[in-house]
Amino acid sequence: MTAKTLYDKLVESHTVARLDEQNVLLFCDLHLMNEYTSPQAFAGLHEQGRGVPVPGQNVAVVSHIIPTHPGTVRVIADPASALQASNLKRNCERHGIPLFDTNDHLQGIEHVVSPEHGMIRPGMVVICGDSHTTTYGALGALGFGIGTSEVEHVLATQTLVYRLAQAMRIRIDGELPLGATAKDLILMIIGRIGAQGARGFVVEFRGSAIDALSVEARFTLCNMAVEAGARGALIAPDAKAIEYVLERAGDITGAMREQALAYWQTLHSDADARFDVEHQFDASAVAPHVTWGTSPDQVIPVSGRVPSPQAQPDEVLRRSTEQALRYVALRPGTPLEGTPVQHVFIGSCTNGRIEDLRAVADVVRGRSVAPGVRAMVVPGSGAVKEQAEAEGIAALLIGAGFEWRNPGCSMCLAMNDDVLDAGVRCASTTNRNFEGRQGRGAITHLMSPAMAAAAAVTGAITDVRKLERIHG
Ligand SMILES: CC(C)[C@H](C(=O)O)[C@@H](O)C(=O)O
Ligand code: SF4
Hints:
The structure is a single chain. By secondary structure, this protein is an alpha/beta fold. It folds into two domains: 6-165, Aconitase, domain 3; 292-470, 2-Layer Sandwich (Aconitase, domain 3), CATH 3.30.499.10. 35% of the residues lie in helices and 17% in strands. It contains 17 helices and 19 strands. The protein has helices spanning 6-14, 39-47, 79-95, 110-116, 148-157, 182-193, 208-212, 215-225, 239-248, 254-265, 315-328, 348-351, 354-364, 382-390, 393-399, 449-458, 464-470, and strands at 15-18, 23-27, 30-34, 58-61, 99-100, 125-128, 142-145, 159-163, 166-173, 201-206, 232-234, 277-282, 289-291, 299-301, 343-347, 374-378, 403-404, 425-428, 443-446. Strand 3, helix 2 (39-47) and strand 4 form a beta-alpha-beta unit. The termini are far apart. The relative contact order is 0.13. The mean pLDDT is 97. One of its GO terms (biological process) is L-leucine biosynthetic process. One of its GO terms (molecular function) is 3-isopropylmalate dehydratase activity. This is 3-isopropylmalate dehydratase large subunit. [4Fe-4S] cluster binds at residues 349, 409, 412. Heterodimer of LeuC and LeuD.
């Protein structure tokens, strides 16, 4: 018997038919939908007079366009966005698909909502018309994003024509130093292998540094694997992951629980499984990282200096460095530390979970938002928001001068009315720093929640480790 990777096992157990050398028909256990990528898919389905055969294995969440202003009733003012939300509601009602609607108190970002209710379990194939579906690898589920025509196919058949990926293993041993988080780890990895470094691969993370991460930190890691081009990210489920799932999946009891536990034990790569590419990193050398440019791989440790186009090894890199520097209005050789920010955004499916908000609160406690800075916290979901309110985190942050908002994607991609003005520089816990991502002409620096909190209280990009030293 040939040794298998975890990825092989997940694909094989979901293969309905082998179509050719490269493609299989893959069964999808769970299909998540948002208001943004589903309307045309439903329209196509209806044109062909098709139904949704297994509506219970589909779930929809209004994520992207929803306003986040405080208040109990949310009204979507923008007519196009309101139409997207009402279409989603109508389509879900028509087909019996569960929906977290605009004013559901548990609503939020699809990738935050689904795991917290036990919908994601080890061994599943989870898909969504959204690239950050890789997040679910943290629980040993194969998650990946699909396009709108594929959404239609999945609605109609619960299957997908799936092109097989290659397997990459990233091994990370050692202990993350104080002040460095899973966000810094993944930013460092993306910086090293590049924004296309994992293109065509499903990445399996393993090693002692991965074992040490909390499940929420693993979500952060797998979420951003797509920023290195990965078609999926996986971490073999361990006791921590299994406990996380069992605490939330109330339906897994009795004999089913025994069966599930026995199956989940098999979800790891065999000892001699072959990977197409392997990388290795040392967690103990990871410092807090901050992006300086307009791609997540344009990233350096916070103590670093913005690179110079002249120092780049080839013409393509020289040009992209030059262009990025022009956009972010930074000169080559400038230290990142001390760069003033006018805005701080804390949230997103990368860092909008309760542990992230606790990390922010730990830095902010005893301090307040610097004058001239607008700092905004948008919890990843209603459940995260309620939890943070119950723990006193919301009160602490509001007292320190943060805006405490309702959940949603918000300023991660500025598809609602949380949009930055041109030239505004933002310390952000999100995952993409593309040109215009948070508003036309706005400048994004990606970093961890603790680092964003440090920026909020100092008004500049700041090494959170120094902040802690100064203030004891
Ligand atoms: C809107 C959606 C299609 C998109 C994605 O696929 O990731 C968004 O969530 C993003 O983060 O850019
Ligand atoms: S929070 Fe950002 S990255 Fe995540 S789904 Fe929403 S827009 Fe995409």
